[in-house]
Design a protein that fits this description.
The chain has about 220 residues and is of the alpha+beta class. Helix content is about 55%, strand content about 10%. The relative contact order is 0.09.
Length: about 220
């Protein structure tokens, strides 16, 4: 496409991969990733070298292969953002000398957002096995960070709630996190800060809520 470059497309040309063959491979391997909310697909239909989005008018003379690779690169940018976010969390914990399991902060965040939650749902939301969650909650209860009580709707189940001490601990960790990363980004330009703020707003608006409350 004139005036537009794509690292993947350039690499494809350098190794002489046939565009049609690569496009078929992308459809098979990445089709499920190229979907938008509401069932609309981002994967274009192939029509005489042009892109046609289902249910919409023709978008123009954009090569299908370039379009698919462009979408993949944008998805890679999101993946990179997630990977680096996790890495920042690990580095902050190391630099701050924290030995607290990361799962504890996930538990407190979920409880603060969702309210009292059953143990099984909490384990699923925090990506921890139920036995592992039970052990973690035993430690957190001993430190006064959470309370456990029978579920009013089913006394056989247990719900977990965050305590004031838990909220205080969560706020303290967020302050530590902020103070630790601040020097790393002290020299960013106004434009770079604006980009970060925009990214944060987009992620907040597009990330589905984890509905794990006891009533659900």
């Amino acid at each position: 496409m004139p005036g537009v470059s794509s690292p993947r497309l350039s690499a494809c040309r350098q190794v002489h991969v046939h565009p049609a063959r690569l496009l078929r491979t992308l459809v098979v391997t990445h089709g499920p990733l190229l979907s938008a909310p509401g069932g609309r697909t981002l994967l274009p239909q192939v029509c005489s070298g042009e892109v046609v989005s289902p249910g919409t008018d023709r978008l123009g003379n954009i090569p299908c292969l370039w379009y698919v690779l462009l979408v993949m690169e944008r998805l890679d940018a999101l993946l990179s953002l997630v990977v680096w976010s996790h890495r920042i969390g690990r580095v902050v914990a190391h630099d701050a000398g924290s030995t607290t399991p990361a799962a504890q902060w996930r538990v407190l965040s979920v409880l603060a957002d969702e309210g009292p939650t059953r143990v099984g749902a909490l384990a699923s939301a925090c990506r921890v096995t139920q036995p592992g969650m039970t052990r973690l909650l035993t430690q957190m209860t001993a430190h006064g960070l959470v309370d456990r009580s029978p579920d009013p709707a089913d006394e056989r189940a247990v719900v977990v709630a965050i305590t004031e001490a838990g909220r205080t601990a969560k706020k303290a960790w967020l302050r530590t996190f902020r103070d630790t990363v601040a020097p790393w980004f002290a020299d960013l330009t106004d434009e770079e800060w604006s980009a970060i703020e925009t990214t944060a707003r987009v992620l907040a608006a597009r990330t589905p809520a984890i509905t794990t409350g006891a009533a659900r």
